[in-house]
Amino acid sequence: MKRSTRCDYSLRAVLELSFHYEKKLVRVSDLSDAQDIPLKFLEQIMLQLKKSGYVRSKKGPNGGYSLTKAPGDIFLGEIIRLVDDRLFAPVLSEPMNRLTTLDAARDNFFGVWAEVEDAMASVLDSISLADIQKRQAEVLSKKKLNMVYHI
Amino acid sequence: MKRSTRCDYSLRAVLELSFHYEKKLVRVSDLSDAQDIPLKFLEQIMLQLKKSGYVRSKKGPNGGYSLTKAPGDIFLGEIIRLVDDRLFAPVLSEPMNRLTTLDAARDNFFGVWAEVEDAMASVLDSISLADIQKRQAEVLSKKKLNMVYHI
DNA sequence: ATATAATATACTAAAATAGTATGAAATATA
DNA sequence: TATATTTCATACTATTTTAGTATATTATAT
Lengths: 151, 151
Prior knowledge:
The structure is a homodimer. Chain A has a single domain, classed as Arc Repressor Mutant, subunit A. Chain A contains seven helices and two strands, in the order αααββαααα. Chain A has helices spanning 5-19, 28-35, 39-51, 76-84, 98-103, 110-124, 129-150, and strands spanning 55-58, 64-67. In chain A, a hairpin with a 5-residue loop joins strand 1 (55-58) and strand 2. In chain A, strands 1-2 form a two-stranded antiparallel ribbon. Chain A is globular. By secondary structure, the first copy, chain A, is mainly alpha-helical. Chain A binds chain B through residues 1-5, 7-8, 11-12, 15, 76, 80, 84, 86-91, 93, 104-105, 108-109, 111-113, 115-116, 119-120, 122-124, 127, 132, 135-136, 139-140, 143, and chain B through 1-5, 7-8, 11-12, 15, 76, 80, 84, 86-91, 93, 104-105, 108-109, 111-113, 115-116, 119-120, 122-124, 127, 132, 135-136, 139-140, 143. Chain A binds a DNA duplex through helix 3.
């Protein structure tokens, strides 16, 4: 059970955008540089983010992307579901239809997977981009502290 | 984030073995039939399970596999970690060495992934094979009830 | 007009995963 | 002791998924 690089890239791109929230638009090439993400791959991701309304865009010179919501209102779970479809999916993505519910009896682990997904959701749906920013700030201040001790 | 079929197969194989705990050995071919798992694929999985001590085996006629521990003492998380390495791994599996911890500051999401893995662990390390058996029994009894109502 | 930057789509490459094939080693039983 | 049965070991192939690239179009600021 691995997360995809696409998932990592998406989150990092959106986080990078959040650093520039309420400022001017950010070019894909800048996001790509800042977060070390292959440009053309990121372009595709940005289109997907736009299609589902997380970012807006402007073409041409001084164009770029920006978030449509405040960093405090975008949660990691949303982005991951957008990009990866589910937080925790079965191998061949069975839609949650009647047939699979009937088959659930045969699948002895059916309920377990749901519990796992819920557990993941309880983490990922409670952490916003703003929270990540805060955490990052804390890590950095701790680092400074360490440096003082090490002088 | 998908679970692998190998993970599903492993759990189902071990569960099937748990149904025969304290009885005679079970052949791989029987496990394969009962759980509808490709035989040669399952053989490989069984070897891995043996190597790490979850099952014992006997070759030749009347040979087969059996669990080394009681179903109540084998938890899903153990099996999954064995088969998939981690409950929730990064894309390119970085070992948890000093370098990655230093890089953690750069990776703004580092802590998040750890939290997610913990959340998954709290589910998967608390459910044993015996628990799955119990759940299964409950599902079946509910089904019977439904059938009565439907007459 | 021109340069810039997003949009769209199709393609290729690489990696991971799933599954198969072949044969050797051990052992029960006749 | 011969035979059938079963695990053990390893190497291989095929499939699918994921990652990444290429090319060309559309919109817009200057």
